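[09:14] KT: can someone run the structure on this one? pasting the chain below
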Amino acid sequence: MSTELWVKNGYVFTEEGFRYASIRIIDGKIDALYECEPEPIKENKNSIDASGCLVVPGFIDAHVHFNDPGRTEWEGIETGSRAAAIGGTTTIFDMPLNCSPSITNLKNLQSKTAYLTSKSHVDYALWGGMTDDSVKNKAELDQMCEVIIAWKAFMSESGIDDFPFVSPGQLEQAMKIAAQQRKILALHAEWEEEIQPLTTFYKRQNSTNERKAFLASRPISAEEKAVSYALEKAAKYGTSLHFVHISSARVVKLIQQAKQSGMDVTVETCPHYLLFDEEDFLQTGAILKCAPPLRSREVVEGLWECIANGWIDTVGSDHSPCPYYMKNTNSIWEAWGGIQGVQFTWLALLDEAMKRSVPFKDILPLGTANVADLFGISGKKGRIQTGLDADLALISLDETTTANQQCIAFRNQYSPYENRKFLLKIKKTLLRGNVIYDDQTGAATKKYGQYIQLREEADGSVPH
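[09:31] RB: done, structure tokens below
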């Protein structure tokens, strides 16, 4: 027997922009959108009143580290996905490192896939890892390719012992493999041969302010060199590249030039690069430590210009958590580098967009349709469209959200977003028609999250 649900009276975000409409949902799929006049309704199991709310596609966060299995004290998919749901996110892609062991071989991938079953509040996919060691076993990577959403590799030290970076020579092998598989290769693009000697130099300068020294040890030029090298090799092998957490407009422009030349290349940035700057890091310290590091206010403004130009493809939280003691260290060099923010990604970004008068139509696709299109799940996710999963976020612009410690839902309750007030509020989050978060009752007890099965093309191949 079919189940029917209506989401009524909302301002629904579609390909044509916002329109006043009601959404009919049948068995967790969007059945139809109907233009309507406002009507008073009483919420029940068959209807949700979205009066006064924007109704947008559930967000897709393609860059989280939930650390399950093996480092659940850092996060865990149960707490991480709950925080994501509270922030309007309905799908996450979990990175292959920070769990233990890292996902660099088929055995670890199979173990993680089995372990995560029935533990997530949101739908999820898994990244696979390419390292200097794993690229030597193409047969195993070919097996992993059938299960993962995409590949991830580091061009500099990752900070995780069992996830070594890919040397320039082995990166060519990784690119060849990814190209043959028609799979995206995402890169943490910082040039290790520049970072390593700078880090050594600045660590020895005992009189230098450590926070300033850390910033100086990872300059924009290290990103530029890594991106330039990767683009050169990707052009040679026809590899689909995705550069994650790019921090500078200078680097985005390099990638944009490659796009214009016909290369299959995309770029992600993160909300912390769009909100915070190096002065915030100098004042706050390790809670804002990340790699690449935060940049100057001028660089932040440059990234917003890139968004206005349509040069940024996706935004991901890069939620990279740890226990507080790993931040509260005697030296900035010893502190874990990662931002806790999956719950506040879209609150923060949309709030900042409103303050800058940036249209939501330019921001929302960065976490919805663009992500779905890029990773080959647009037949299920990313838009409010007939036949797609009824993944929705209901957002009120008449209410505010304060990110205080009591509301933080990820495991370790601290964040650089703490004490910020956002000029909007997530009222409800729906996953395939199921309410997984309600601002009155909290996150649902039942976990509806499912592993995303990649769609197949007519010839049986899995698209990137």
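[09:33] KT: thanks! The two ends are 35 Å apart (CA to CA).
[09:34] RB: yep, looked fine to me
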